[in-house]
Amino acid sequence: MRVLLLLPTTTYRTAAFLRAARKLAVDVIVASEEKNALAELNPSGLLTLDFDAPDACAEQAAMQPPIDAVIGVDERTAVVAAAVSSRIGLRHNPIDAVRAAGNKLRMREMLEEGGVPVPAFQSLSLAESPESLAALVSYPCVLKPLNLSGSRGVIRANNESDFILSFKRVRSIVQSLGTKNDDFGTQNILVEEYVPGEEVAVEALLIDGAFCTLAIFDKPDPMEGPFFEETIYVTPSRLPHERQESIIEATRRAAEVLGLRHGPIHAELRVNRAGPWMLEVAARSIGGRCSGALRFEGGASLEELLLRHALNLPLALERETAASAVMMIPIPAEGVLREVRGREAAAAVSGVDEVSITAHAGQRLTPLPEGSQYLGFIFARSETPEQAVEALRSAHRRLEIVIDQATALSKVSHSE
Description:
By secondary structure, the chain is α+β, with helices and mostly antiparallel strands. Among the domains are: 2-99, 3-Layer(aba) Sandwich (Rossmann fold), CATH 3.40.50.20; 120-193, Dna Ligase, domain 1 (2-Layer Sandwich); 323-416, D-amino Acid Aminotransferase, Chain A, domain 1 (2-Layer Sandwich), CATH 3.30.470.
């Protein structure tokens, strides 16, 4: 069996997918948007594809040795995976459905039309004057780029002066990315009502239209703005069973309305007394290294599960019994990373599985909302979700992050 992995050069997932492929004795072709330095030494295992041109990718992939499965890891590569799978005759999501899931405006339009609760929203042109738009918006509201992920560029505004400053900031973020991928997405932004409540994430798998829940993650840190940096995910959820069932049904219904039928689903929702409100539905699995917080029957990783699903191999969807949590270590300040101290002390905390610093010394760090990366990840497992979360917080307090902020060396200590 041979699988085509569509892995952007910025993904954290390459090693996990390759480990899973080795475990299953699956041949792998790794495709990236930039040429690999080793491509000439292993031309059959490395491929360069323009992920912004799905049809061309499909034709290029069709010229490779027979491929039994295609897997993407983000919004762009999910579209490419659907195009390639369609071209070579594999099970796949409709391409239009995947594109809709990757566009915040189109997704909300379809969900609203399909009766799935979403925050009230509107699309505003970045060419307009924010001063003239501010009076037309209800507050509090949230401004969002249409095609970015990971809370990048997402800002809450509580009043007109907030809106004007936030609009200019989001416009700068969007325009810095250019217009190659989506002209509409770089000329407009989404403005939606702020929905109070607890925030959760759902990880699921669609198997020929059947919706299979893998996990519900609670987000124990307040997500109230002005920025919406995600830090801790913990599962199993501590919400009441009835509320969890409503979350699962809302996610299932959202996938159905979008036309998604086969492959991973990652959804983000707010939950309050009125029920669940759909914020995002992505035709991909959870991002970053957060998949490391999930283990399934027999110790299978999420990546192994996705490979098995794509290759039509037997699946064991039952998650481990232990509570599991991951912290995406936030970047505390703009500047150049010099050092991260206290790793051994953090890793020694009871319940902590791993402390992984993915940023490197000398790397320029940019916090949200402009930034798109984390400092690293901490993983913990324990008997209860509360214990797993406390292990993460305890480990994080032991880290000292040394950042050079342009003119002076600034040490930011989380033990303070």
